[in-house]
User: Fold this.
Amino acid sequence: MTDPQSVPDFELVPPSADDLEHRRTMRSADRKQQIMEAVVEILSARYPEKFTIKEIAARADVSEAGLYRHFTSKTQILEGIIAFCDVSIRQMCADIDAQPGVTMLQRALLKVQTLLRFAETNPGLTRILDGEALIYEDNDLAEQVGRILAKAETSIRQSLKLAAIEREIPADTNFSMHANLMMSFVEGRWRRFSRSGYKTLPTEGWATAGAFFARLGR
Assistant:
């Protein structure tokens, strides 16, 4: 038998104010994530219509009052989703730039392919990135998306510049034009994906398109 005297006393220590605040912050972050995911789910429907706070709350399984405790408006929810896209795309480009044994031209092409795959994996986000879901929303949201696309294009252009330095492509290559063509292709494929009700996959035919882009400047 266990000696009762050998069993340590259990002392209930009340959580500190910092612990309670941390728990509240974590719960709030989880609920915010849940609400943003609800919007993406709504947009993932093949042909979604204009959505309201009421519909978002119902999909997230929260009351409208509960939703407003985390977001002041639908615009703020969409801003959170756009911020996620921004971080994700920048990180994907950074990961490609950090890959060893990959030529600079291959990095540019990988960035294009990764943008296509990102949309294919996240249909609801595609309708935000191609602007369809923002038609009736605050104009500043479309400008935020525009800045994300501009940064992606800049990343591709930088890879092409480095490809010229490494003599993978001609030094007189018009980097800006080629990067713009690549991003125009990405945005066009995104648009076809959402317009087709997600039937026409962005990566469809990439082998041919990738080979075409690999010949640019030659």
Confidence is low (pLDDT under 50) at residues 1-13, 20-26.
